């Protein structure tokens, strides 16, 4: 058994714990320490960490397969673990001095955060002073570092965007995550009040977007030279596809066990129920095929082949449309799931709520993504990061 197969098998072993904890994850608005610790102990967080730092330096296929296993039972858990794994990959894009720092105590760290430019950065000797408030910091209940982004301000005017890392001890974590969906992701706000950020913890956002980060010059493996947006979109895809498969399987079991309220007839004998089961199972299989296509894309494409803005716009639109496809498939099943599927104890309503939130995520919103693809194909400037 290869290392990749062993890690995926470990994820399958952890998945029953994820399923058992799913209700409490949603209710408590965060993952349990037990689930996070199990993933850390199994070596899942360092799937894409360079070998020079004790990581596995494997491929996106391994990461996607691990996240998919969790997505079948709990969208929130899959989302947070995907970001923890993915942000350990992002650590390897920073200057070597930061990589030495973040991997000093082991081959992984827990890093929530976002590259949306929420902060203001004031240049000072040796770095910057960061201040501001950011939202959507998934996984903030357990953190060693925070990934942030901000605009360099000179004379009150923004000059350029920088991504930067800050130790969790220097961040004020605000426990205000209370959403209709993705409730278990602890994606609360984070505030920085005049925090000094040394230069070695900083990267130009443009360099990340173009695959020209400091890490791309340190590590020869092609994965560290990929433009960051296709990878970040790849963090989300196995979460959503896993949710579709999980919802389809739950709906099938639910239908087999249900009886009509007024006639006591078995619901599975209704043609509409049979059609919905078939639609859900086939739809989940199609989503899995789309995921495998994206796996092959990220694991084989040369970074230079996705330098063109048109190609990145196409990737973003594709993933956005998959998000919409998954939501519609789960919603169609819910129409035939009965009132009991809307109880908080039912996985079906969690899958629906979670996908309803994800389909309007800043990177997954279909309208924004397809608009930008149309813009660049018409020779117009994009109006969102690509």
TrEMBL record:
According to the entry, every stretch annotated as the Acyl-CoA dehydrogenase/oxidase N-terminal domain falls at 17-83
Gene3D superfamilies for the chain: Acyl-CoA dehydrogenase/oxidase, N-terminal domain, Butyryl-CoA Dehydrogenase, subunit A, domain 2, Butyryl-CoA Dehydrogenase, subunit A, domain 3
Quote one Gene Ontology molecular function term: flavin adenine dinucleotide binding
Q: Which UniProt keywords apply?
A: Oxidoreductase
Q: Which residues form the Acyl-CoA dehydrogenase C-terminal domain?
A: 239-365
What is the protein name given in its UniProt record?
Acyl-CoA dehydrogenase family protein
Organism (species): Sphingobium phenoxybenzoativorans
The lineage, from the top, is:
Bacteria, Pseudomonadati, Pseudomonadota, Alphaproteobacteria, Sphingomonadales
